[in-house]
Q: What sequence folds into this?
């Protein structure tokens, strides 16, 4: 018998309080959802969940209705109208995670009101408003979602927001931030992108500190533009305000996963004291900035990572694409030379790449090293790539180059795209790199 | 007092045993470190709602303290998982099998699917803000000399980080202990006397130790005792480490509850009510103590309140050496973070003068048998602390408050936090539930450890001395020893090597000793390749260079096997060389020649054989 018919037979449902006899022992608990149809899961009075095989149950007695599995009703503190208005635009992700019984995993059920009620301190810093845009994981983002985020930001700005906190999953947080940076050619207020690496249902969540520091930065400084606010180190002491186009998630799970690449943090926000220290003096300021948004992005934009043993089909796959960003090796290399029999195939790769470019695809080169700059004139091979029409991505992060190319193709004619791609528009390319920038260890950022 | 039945004593035990396996949810070794930490980092924690939307009482109280936690980490025994920077790994297989064996040994019902739960703990002892724990079995029983005691639950959980230092607003924890597997066994409240509690704790310890996977040493087993008397309430005493005192903790808690019931009755008699206690004003006493002789009050902010008609009651002894005033002080310590209080029943003392006492009484509006309590702190903190004093005094009207208390070394206890509610658990979403299959249990049933009496019988049969029997029967080596017996090694030699030799080597600081080495050395002894007297030496050398084979180690020690006939030749040579001595002394030369022979043959042949061969050789010579 499966769980469904078992429950039906004994006229039970999720939330029923039952007493079950297994062997010689009695188990009393509330029925909670089970992910295995052969197992009844009970939440015992002690708080433990245990699973009992249906065919091991000798007796079952209904004892009434247990506490419903649900969440507390959010209680919001009173807003102070004299404080800066901050709109919290929420798209999902770990920052809003909670337990999903049915799937036995983390999911994104929390509403922005839940978020606000969990962080009453926010009401002392600003006059917050919550907007529920999406409840999704950031790995599922598509350009359409970037457009929706941009529209939501525009709406809030027009509605009088003094600042925006955009919360999302962390996987594509840096990519989405870069996209926002390109979309908003000019923006009069700060948009601080936050996420969390430890879900907000746990006591050790980094969500709270990221949110509070983000709100402080948005309300206490003259910064205008897009920036990321995440933990600066594994400690709960300071958050780093990171440049939207030059930040990468460099760790799968740590709080301080987000590091500036070929750049330094814009600022640091002290969680305890609230002090803000700017490390970058040359940041965009609020004064006299207008709102200009270009939300279109070219769907036919591709991304290719160079690997050992590449085959021409990998390039061929992008036939018909308007743009392609290549993540090359080292200074921006890919296998093109033929030195022996085994490398004969590289001729074909070269041919396919040339074909792609000749068909009108804009191709830009970045480096898998992340740190450092693509050099298109050092080795003969790169000179050749340049001749073929591959554009240098300079010191741009590959993902940033990707959203930049998609955005350029969405908004400009091809010749203009080729002109703008290697030029700095939003801080995505730096002219010079400081010696101290290359420290991807926990203390940088 | 001794009529436990009359006062309705009820007690249950909750024992936590560390397991000598890898850590439960990461692949770090379970070792405690005393050297300087490699990394330290700071964190904060927040109270969060459980899935039923409730906040846990204990969690909220800890959060209210606004603590910063400093964690000490080590390369080698802590990783990203202890640092709460990576999701956990599935439960350690050996630890899981150990608890399943304990469950089978005590006839408990094992669940079909065990869920790893997050138990909210917000005192910082877990970096994540929760302890991971899984209920593995329910029911089962323990046999005491006079009764059977029911087992409620058996859970496998991770140990918490070690508190190293506490100061205002900060607690330092060491992460080495975080994640060491613990079996938590909770009994039913079937224990009715302090002696039963003690016997039961011993039985549980024995049950764990039989598995050969129980860690040893101070802190490796910790007992919590749940105690109530009929007119009292359930109180949980946390962290009793000294088993020999466990009955005394029970006696003193029963005494405390009785005293609190008496206090309640006395307060009723005096017609003290909540309303009367609430009627107070916090008085600023700083001026009174501006030039005081009392060092800790002089020139500092001091605040106080009146406690209506409580004179004499604050000084009431509720445990040996602890008064109701001490109880108030421990509440203030835990809930307001102050060091303590000063109350009128302990004065004059601390060089506070009679005049100052009079002034305080006046300033606090004390008349007749009103008492006062004062604290040294800035106004905001002082007000919080004095409110705690009033709240606790109001609780005294009801009698015994339900709470968690910390075990003090002298068998007394002090308040630590409210009893945690059931709301503090929700499923660990980063781990799949553990399915426990019947097939697996059947296999484990075949490997269950022997009982203590079975072991005693077997070891005696194999010729172990009484001493070795008692050393081995609950040793972590017992299971390995029994495995060695099956291999046919000498029981006494093996037991001596394990209980004495290995112990000696670890005192010397040897760390590389593995069971396989011990087994190989003992098998070499069995085959006659080496002799008993070099076993420890061989193990010492081998543990220093574990990459070598035993043969290589023995070669270096010059104790490799001697060829047949060599011993006889060496002995004949010695006798020959000393023929003059032999002629003079005859058989009496044995003693002198034995020394020479041992020098040349140590480790290759045992002393008995040398002596026997030497005697034969001498006899031959003398007869000639």
A:
């Amino acid at each position: 018998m499966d769980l469904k018919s078992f429950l039906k037979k004994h006229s039970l449902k999720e939330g029923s309080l039952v007493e079950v006899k297994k062997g010689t022992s009695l188990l009393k608990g509330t029925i909670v959802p089970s992910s295995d149809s052969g197992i009844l899961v009970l939440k015992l009075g002690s708080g433990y969940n245990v699973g009992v095989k249906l065919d091991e149950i000798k007796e079952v007695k209904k004892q009434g209705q247990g506490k419903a599995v649900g969440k507390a009703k959010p209680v919001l503190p009173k807003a102070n109208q004299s404080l800066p208005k901050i709109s919290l635009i929420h798209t999902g992700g770990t920052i809003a995670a909670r337990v999903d019984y049915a799937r036995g995993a983390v999911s994104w059920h929390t509403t922005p009101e839940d978020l606000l009620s969990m962080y009453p301190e926010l009401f002392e810093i600003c006059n917050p408003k919550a907007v529920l845009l999406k409840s999704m994981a950031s790995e599922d983002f598509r350009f359409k979602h970037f457009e929706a985020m941009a529209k939501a930001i525009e709406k809030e700005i027009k509605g009088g927001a003094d600042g925006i906190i955009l919360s999302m999953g962390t996987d594509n947080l840096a990519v989405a931030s870069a996209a926002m940076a390109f979309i908003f050619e000019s923006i009069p207020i700060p948009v601080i992108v936050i996420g969390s690496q430890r879900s907000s249902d746990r006591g050790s969540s980094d969500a709270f500190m990221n949110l509070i520091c983000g709100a402080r930065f948005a309300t206490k400084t003259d910064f205008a533009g897009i920036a990321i606010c995440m933990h600066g180190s594994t400690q709960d002491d300071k958050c780093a305000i990171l440049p939207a186009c030059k930040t990468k998630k460099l760790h799968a799970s740590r709080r301080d996963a987000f590091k500036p690449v070929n750049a330094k943090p814009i600022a640091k926000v002290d969680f305890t004291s609230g002090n803000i220290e700017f490390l970058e003096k040359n940041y965009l300021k609020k004064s006299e900035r207008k709102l200009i948004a270009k939300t279109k992005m070219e769907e036919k934009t591709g991304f290719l990572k160079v690997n050992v043993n590449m085959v021409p089909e990998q390039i061929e796959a992008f036939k018909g694409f308007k743009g392609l960003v290549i993540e090359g090796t080292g200074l921006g290399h890919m296998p093109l030379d033929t030195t022996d029999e085994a490398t004969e195939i590289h001729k074909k790769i070269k041919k396919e790449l040339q074909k792609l470019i000749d068909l009108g695809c804009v191709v830009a080169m970045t480096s898998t090293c992340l740190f450092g700059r693509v050099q298109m004139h050092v080795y003969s091979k790169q000179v050749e790539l340049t001749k073929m029409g591959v554009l240098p991505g300079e010191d741009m992060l590959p993902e940033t180059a990707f959203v930049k190319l998609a955005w350029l193709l969405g908004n400009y004619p091809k010749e203009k795209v080729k002109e703008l791609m290697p030029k700095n528009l939003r801080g995505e390319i730096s002219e010079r790199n400081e010696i101290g920038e290359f420290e991807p260890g926990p203390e940088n950022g | 007092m001794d009529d436990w039945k009359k006062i309705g004593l009820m007690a249950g035990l909750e024992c936590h045993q560390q397991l000598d396996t890898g850590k439960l949810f990461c692949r770090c070794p379970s070792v405690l470190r005393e050297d300087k930490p490699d990394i330290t980092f700071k964190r904060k924690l927040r109270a969060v709602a459980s899935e039923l939307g409730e906040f846990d009482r204990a969690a909220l109280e800890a959060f209210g303290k606004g603590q910063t936690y400093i964690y000490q980490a080590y390369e080698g025994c802590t990783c990203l998982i202890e640092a709460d920077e990576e999701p956990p790994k599935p439960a350690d297989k050996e630890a899981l099998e150990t608890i399943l064996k304990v469950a089978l040994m005590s006839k408990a019902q094992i669940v079909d699917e065990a869920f790893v739960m997050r138990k909210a703990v917000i005192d910082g002892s877990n970096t994540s803000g929760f302890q991971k724990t899984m209920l593995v079995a329910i029911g089962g029983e323990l046999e005491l000399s006079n009764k059977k005691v029911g087992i409620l639950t058996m859970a496998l959980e991770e140990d918490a980080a070690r508190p190293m230092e506490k100061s205002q607003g900060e607690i330092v924890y060491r992460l080495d202990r975080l994640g060491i597997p613990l079996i938590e066994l909770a009994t039913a409240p079937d224990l009715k006397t302090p002696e039963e509690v003690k016997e039961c704790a011993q039985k549980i310890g024995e049950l764990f130790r039989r598995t050969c996977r129980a860690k040893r040493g101070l802190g490796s087993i910790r007992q919590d005792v749940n105690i109530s008397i009929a007119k009292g309430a359930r109180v949980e005493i946390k962290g009793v480490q000294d088993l020999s005192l466990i009955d005394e903790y029970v006696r003193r808690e029963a005494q405390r509850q009785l005293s609190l019931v008496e206090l309640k009755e006395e307060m009723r008699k005096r017609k003290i009510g909540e309303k009367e206690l609430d009627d107070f004003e916090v008085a600023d006493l700083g001026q009174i103590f501006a030039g005081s002789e009392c060092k800790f009050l002089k020139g500092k902010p001091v605040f106080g309140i009146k406690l209506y008609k409580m004179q004499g009651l604050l000084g009431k002894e509720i445990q040996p050496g602890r008064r109701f005033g001490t109880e108030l002080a421990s509440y203030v310590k835990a809930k307001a973070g102050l060091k303590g209080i000063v109350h009128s029943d302990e004065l004059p003392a601390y060089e506070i003068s009679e005049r100052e006492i009079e002034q305080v009484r006046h300033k606090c509006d004390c008349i007749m048998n009103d008492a006062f309590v004062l604290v040294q702190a800035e106004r905001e903190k002082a007000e919080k602390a004095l409110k705690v004093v009033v709240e606790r005094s109001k609780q005294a009207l009801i009698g015994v408050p339900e709470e968690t208390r910390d075990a003090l070394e002298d068998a007394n206890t002090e308040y630590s936090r409210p009893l945690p509610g059931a709301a503090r658990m929700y499923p660990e979403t980063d781990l799949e539930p553990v399915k426990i299959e019947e097939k697996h249990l059947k296999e484990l049933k075949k490997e269950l450890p022997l009982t203590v009496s079975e072991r005693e019988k077997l070891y005696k049969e194999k010729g172990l001395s009484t001493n070795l029997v008692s050393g081995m029967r609950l040793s972590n080596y017992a299971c390995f020893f029994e495995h060695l017996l099956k291999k046919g090694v000498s029981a006494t030699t093996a037991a001596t090597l394990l209980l004495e030799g290995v112990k000696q080597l670890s005192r010397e600081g040897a760390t590389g000793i593995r069971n396989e080495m011990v087994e190989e050395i003992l098998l070499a002894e069995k085959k006659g390749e080496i002799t008993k007297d070099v076993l420890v030496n061989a193990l010492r050398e081998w543990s220093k260079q574990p990459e070598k084979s035993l043969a290589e180690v023995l070669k270096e020690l010059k104790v490799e096997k001697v060829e047949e006939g060599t011993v006889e030749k060496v002995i004949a040579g010695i006798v020959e060389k000393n023929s003059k001595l032999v002629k003079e002394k005859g058989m009496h030369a044995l003693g002198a020649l034995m020394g020479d022979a041992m020098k040349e043959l140590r480790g290759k042949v045992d002393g008995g054989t040398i002596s026997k061969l030497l005697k034969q050789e001498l006899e031959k010579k003398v007869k000639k």
In short: The CA atoms of residues 355 and 369 of chain A lie 27 Å apart. The domain at 85-293 of chain A is CATH 3.40.50.1170 (Rossmann fold). The first strand of chain A starts at residue 16 and ends at 22.
